[in-house]
Each structure stands twice: as C-alpha cells, then as structure tokens.
Amino acid sequence: MSTTLLAAEPVLEVRNLCVDYGLGEDAVHGVTDATLTLHRGEVLGLAGESGSGKSTLAYALTRLLRAPGVITGGEVLFHNRPQGSEHTETVDLLAADAARLRQIRWSQLAVVFQSAMHALNPVARVDAQLTDVLKAHRKQMTPAQRRERAVELLRMVGISEDRLRSYPHELSGGMRQRVMIAMALALEPQVVIMDEPTTALDVVTQREILEELMLLRQRLGFAIIFITHDLSLLIELADSIAIMYAGRLVERAGASELFHAPRHPYSLGLLNSFPALHGERVRMEGIPGSPPSLTALPGGCAFHPRCGYAMDRCRTDTPPLLQPQDDPGRDRLAACWLQDGRQAPPAPLAARPTTADGATGADQTPGSDR
Amino acid sequence: MAAATSTIAPVPPVPAARRASRIPRSPKVIIGGSLLLLFALLAVFGPVIAPHSPNWQASTSNSIPQPPSGRFLLGTDQFQHDIFSQVLAGGRDTLLIAFLAGVIATTLSILVGVTAGYIGGLTDELLSILANIFLALPGLLILIVVMRPLPPGDTNNPLIIGLVIGLTAWAWGARVLRAQTLALRNQDYVESARVIGERKPRIIVFEVLPNLLPILASSFIFTVIYAIGTYVSLSWLGVINPASNTWGTMLNSAQQSSAMLSNYWWWYVPPALCVALVGIALALLNFGIDEIINPRLRSTRSRHRGVRFTLGLTPVLRSGPAGTGPAGPPAAVALSAAEAEGGDTATAVAVSHRDSTAPGGSTPPGDGTAAASTIAAKGETL
Predict the structure, then answer these.
(1) Which residues of B touch A295 (CB under 8 A)?
(2) Best residue of A13, A14, A16, A26 to probe chain B, by most B CBs closer than 10 Å
(3) How many Cα atoms occupy the beta-carbon half-sphere of A71 within 13 Å?
(4) What pLDDT is recorded for position A242?
(5) CATH number for the domain that contains residue A150
(6) Number of alpha carbons in the 13 Å side-chain half-sphere of residue B48
(7) Considering only CB atoms, which chain A residues are within 8 Å of B354?
(8) What does DSSP assign to residue B110?
(9) For a 10 Å CB count at each end of chain B, is N or C smaller?
C-alpha cells in the first residue's frame, strides 16, 4: 500500500521537541528531543507502548496538549501551502498565536481524535456537525452547497446520505469514527493527525476504514501522522515509522526496512511480539518487564533494564539518534550503542541484504493478510 | 536540554508524601484555613482571655461611647461595655450555631436528596416537591415566624437556633445531591452492584455517597456561610434575645443607638469585620475543595503563576536554545508572548522552579488508553 513519494518535500518538521508535564523541579519529561519530518503525502507511523509519549508528541506539535503539559524546547515548522496556491509559507507553530493557529487548524492541519464516542456532540445531528466547520471556514458557501459537501464527505467515507439527519447515538462505532474522519477531511487539510483512530473498532471495520483512508489519501494527497500501538498495522499502512520509548524516538526507518531489519532492540522486541501468518512456527517472545515510569527513568538508555543486549555503556550514557554505522546511506536512524560501529551489532539487529524493492517488501508483512 | 534530561536521578516513590500532596497548598487555602482556625480558637478560648465579661460595664453614669484607647482596645459602647471583650466572646455562639446548622442541613439534604435520586419514582416526586416547597419559602421570614413565639430563653439557646436554621437550609443541597445521584445511579459500577444483589442502603453508602463527597463538602461550607449570615441577620433584626452576646446582637444594639450616624465606628466595624472574615475564610477553603475535586486546577491555576494554561494553546516555555547542555541557570528564558502574564518572565520561571512539592495532580503522559495494553498482547488483533 505504501506509495513512492513524488517529491520528498517536507510539510511538517519537528526539531528537538521537548514536552514536560508540570513545571519546575518536579516536571515529568513526556517527550525528549523528538525530531521528525513529515513529507507531503506521506504516512508516518508513530508506534510505542502506552505511555511512551506518542500522543503527547502529536498533541504538542498541534499545541493541543492540555495542562499541565508544557513545551519546553524545540521547533515545529509547518510548511503551509494552501489548496490551489503555489506559494509555500513556513509557520512556526510554537511561536504562533491563537489567531494564527485558528487559521491553520482543521483547514490545513486536522486531528482525528481517539474516541469518536466523546468527540461528537450527542445532541447535534451529523449534518450540523459537518457543516459547522464549513460555515466558519468557507464563508462564501451557501447552505445548499454546504449540505452538498456534507453528503459528499459522508459518501467519501462510505456512509449513505440518509444518515445525515442522524444523531451520533444512532450510528455504530465504526460509522461514528468515519464521521470523525469525514469531519477532519472537510476542509482538505495538508496534514491529518490520527490518534489511534481505529483502536476501539474490530479488525474488519478497522480494515474497511483504513482502506478508505488510504484511497482518500491517494486522491487528496494529504499527509498522515498515524499514532497506534499496533506495529503490525503500521508496517502495512505507513511509509515510514518512528518508534518511541519512554518519551524518546528510538528508531526511525521506512516501514519495510523496519520490518526486515530493525536496528533497535526495542523495535525488534515489538516485531517479535506478533506472529507472522506465513513461515515456520516460532516461539513468541515479548519484551520482558514493563515500561518505566517517566518519573523514575533508569539512567543511560531508558530501555537497558529490559534489553537483552545491554552493555555497561547503556547504563550510563544515553544513546543519540544516529545512522547505524554499518549501513550508511539509508534514511534511517536508531538510538542504540550497538549501532555506533564500535562493535558489530548482534545478528538480529544487523544490516540485512536489501530486498528487491521496498514496495514488495511491504506486501510480505503479516498484517497484509488480515 | 538533551543532556540535562538524561541525568535525572531515579525518584523513589514516597506514598506518604504523595498523600500529603493531595491537600492543596495554594495561598487561598492556607489563608482560609488559618483564618478559620483562628476564629475557632477564639470561639473556644475567647471568653476566657477576654479582659472583661461581656456584660461588665466600665461606668454606669457615662452614656457616651469611648473611642479605642489603651484601656479599652476597641473602645466601649453606649453602656460602657468593653467592645474588645464582646467581640472575643461573641464568636462562640455564632460559630456553634452555624456549624450545627451546617451539619443538620447537610444530613437532611443527604437523606432527602440521595434517597430521592436513587429510589426514584413516587418517592422522588414527593421528596422533590418537599424540597421545592422549602426552596420557595423565604427562609428569613419563616425563621422570624418560627422564632417569635419561642420564649426568650429558647431564642438564647444556640442548639435550638441551630436546629431551626438547619431545618430551613437543606433544600438547595438536597436538589444538587439528587441531580448528582441521578447521574451516578446509572453508572456501570452502580448497576453491577445492583445486579450482584447488594442492598440499596449499602449501594447508597458505599457506591454512591463517596462520589458525592466533594459536593457534600462544598455544600456544607456554603450552608455554614448561609447559617452565619442568617443568624447574624436574625440577631440584628432583634429576633434573637438581645441579652445574648453575639456579633449579631452587637450590631443590633449599635443600630438601635444610631452608632452609624454618630460615627462610633469602633462599635459596629469589629463585629461586622469578624462576620465577613469568617465568611471569607470558609469561601477560601472551598477553593481547596475545588482543587481536590479537580486536580487539574491545582497544576493549572494555583501553583505556578506566570505560565498560563489555555486549552488549545499549549504554553511554550523555552529555557535556553534547544540542544545546548545543562548550561547552569536558564540564562535566556523566553516565554512566547502569548503566555507571559504581564511580561514578567523572569519571576515566572523563578516561581516555577522554587516549588518542589511532589506532582500530585500531574498525570503521566498516557495516550488516552487507561488500560495498560502492552505491545506484547497485540498478537491477538491479527
């Protein structure tokens, strides 16, 4: 499903973003030094266990993080190119004021929230909620045009027109999630951030919605940041994947590269946690232990207490996010001392011979058989 | 920043400290609590430490109030009573009556409100009608009508007055509790308790009531404030036996002697100030209850002045250029203009760094899923 990027033009750049919960001495570091680039039309997956900071990162870069969240450093640059415009303008989202953010949010940068159950207003009909945003951002539209657009949006996500006058409680969970997605796409944004949009749904519905989403993306060309803890889903869906652990990015790679040759022990652990549908039977190995509390992070690499490859150095020094030394030239990064070239990485974390090409690699993922 | 965060020392969990941090320490709560403590101590020990008995007269021939002096700290009234002694002694009955009325009214409001909300049906209808009738009745008028026929000895008895005020003050609390109980009774944990066969009284006491505690506490405090106001008004109106010595009766005698017109401010200002201060103390304490109900308030509103948390506009608080190490104190502190309150950025950061209590209210950055679903369990979704 992953499409080759037409041009690697960035639309959203996150540099050294740091997010704290609370202020002063007792602040908890929710996200530390996150650096990401989202290209136009790209699907970037953000994966990690619960509490690893993926949602915090996404909410921070939209400045939607609730109190006591505070952004303590870094930059978020949004390269805004409104629909039909040739001119690209760079907006620093962290310096933007409320009015500027209001212009950008939803129309250029939309968010699909996690629980559609609570995000839709239970006493307003679907069409009212869909047309509300058009009333605010597309002032020239007539009521008839707005209604037409609402119908179009619903059809886009596979809901028939007669649901327009329904209340949210009259829709099923999957339909509500589709309405949420339709609302997010109402103004044809350049970036859509999806925070576990399908977590509450069964796999069949999830599949339908994601397939529709990917078709829409091909047609409309928006970029997606997809947050989930379901790595198998990401491998199938995303162009590139960022793995988070304890508030830090530990690995960034193309989806199929990550699947075939993870370079961080944590990514390897995640990949070993779900079975392949093809191939021989292997013993499933999870990751021993549980994620650390962010208030009491272990020193050095935060993953070392759970890591089978931990060395002395891992207990004292925090590894930076660097290119693996034995595999130069690829667009991938890992934050692990095993990859700094001082020693050969253990076989499961070493470079692998390249598969024929990335696209076929993605088709062999276990998730594609759901 | 990068290097700074890598050297966080592991913090051992301290349950005792965490519990202590549940009690809000905002200035409001501290001021309110200490004021109330002061007045409670005065109520207990005031008459003992007062230099004179409230009925003691400095002279029986002089009928001109004396202004404050070294001999009479707050001066005297028309009958040469020592105002300072009267103020010290006058709090006891007022506070006793107010708290008694608060307890009685709160108990009644629980009985009526929670029962009506939980049982529902005809019971609810009848109890709601009762509460509505009591709400519609003008409280002060009813009290006057009830109090007038009582013998003077009874209008002097704080227990009876407290009871009567309590009996007229429960209706508002009952309505609030009923509404909240209605919202709670269909929660899953209440329904499951019903399904497994718990009895109604047990469900009400163990499943519903604990969730009403914050509302109960604030409704109690407001009833106490109401009772103080009511009692002082009644004494000021002369319904309460003027022979009893309270802040209200002091105001009553000051009013009757036209202290206001004659500018005898030392006569009416001290008791009025006491009434106002007790009310303020209770209202300030109520903010503390607010913060226990909603821990987010603590971290957003009361702890760190200078950083304003706005929904949908996460504050950006940069300490030094990104990427530099732990370069001592934050030299270049830049608050984005939208967040700086009054532009006083330096103090804002100083305040936020000085406070070192444990983060009781700050939640770890969860991603919304309450259940700790680990990646290891993801195989089953395939």
Answers:
(1) 11, 359, 364
(2) A26
(3) 33
(4) 93
(5) 3.40.50.300
(6) 5
(7) 24
(8) I
(9) C
The alpha-carbon gap from A166 to the nearest alpha carbon of chain B, in Å, equals 25
Domains of chain B: 27-298 (1.10.3720.10), 305-351 (no CATH)
More confident residue, A126 or B269: A126
> CA-nearest residue of chain B to A202?
B381
pLDDT score of A203:
84
- B60 touching A (Cβ < 8 Å): no
CB contact under 8 A, A95 and B365: no
Min Cα separation B308/chain A (Å): 9
Residue A235 domain flag:
no
- Is-contact B94 B247, C-beta < 8 A? yes
Which chain B residues are Cβ-neighbours of A59 within 8 angstroms? 314
Q: Of A177, A197, A229, which residue constitutes the final position of a domain?
A: A229
- Judge whether B315 is closer than 8 Å to chain A, CB to CB: yes
Least confident interval from A24-28, A201-205, B135-139, B290-294: B290-294
Of B323, B364, B369, the CB nearest to A16: B323
Number of compact structural domains in chain A: 2
B15 touches chain A (CB under 8 A): no
Residues A114 and A214 in one domain: yes
pLDDT band at residue B315 using 50, 70 and 90 as cut-offs: confident
Q: Report the C-alpha gap between A293 and A21 in whole angstroms.
A: 13
- The pLDDT-based confidence of A173 (bands split at 50, 70, 90) is confident
| Residue A4 falls inside a structural domain | no
Indicate if the pLDDT at residue A340 is higher than 50: yes
Residue B25's nearest CA partner among B298, B372, B208, B365 is B298
Q: What is the pTM of this model?
A: 0.66
Q: Provide the pLDDT for residue B236.
A: 82
Chain A residues close to B299, C-beta within 8 Å: 22, 67-68
Mean pLDDT confidence for A160-187 = 88
Question: Rounded to an integer, what distance in angstroms lies between the CA atom of residue B195 and that of residue A139?
Answer: 53
Q: pLDDT tens-digit profile of A285-294? A: 778 888 888 8
Whether residue A202 is found in the same domain as residue A270: no
Mean pLDDT of chain B: 72
d(CA B196, nearest CA chain A) in Å: 28
Q: In 3D, which of B7, B366, B318, B357 has the Cα closest to residue A30?
A: B366
Residue-range definition of the domain harbouring residue A86: 10-229
φ, ψ (nearest 5 deg) of residue A323: -70, 135
Q: Which residues of B touch A28 (CB under 8 A)?
A: 359, 362, 364-365
Quote the DSSP letter at residue B362: P
Q: How far is B280 from chain A (nearest CA, A)?
A: 29
From A166, A201, A229, give the residue that closes a domain: A229
Q: Which positions in chain B touch A18 (Cβ < 8 Å)?
A: 1, 5, 322
Give chain A positions within 8 Å (CB) of B360.
none
pLDDT at A106 over 70: yes
Answer whether A49 sits within 8 Å of B375, measured CB to CB. yes
Nearest to B36 by CA among B272, B276, B278, B219: B278
Average pLDDT over residues B11-21: 49
User: Same structural domain for residues A326 and A364?
Assistant: yes
Are B367 and A195 inside 8 Å of each other by CB? yes
- Using alpha carbons, list the distances in angstroms from residue B289 to A3, A109, B174: 55, 39, 19
State the Cα–Cα distance between residues B269 and A214, nearest whole angstrom. 75
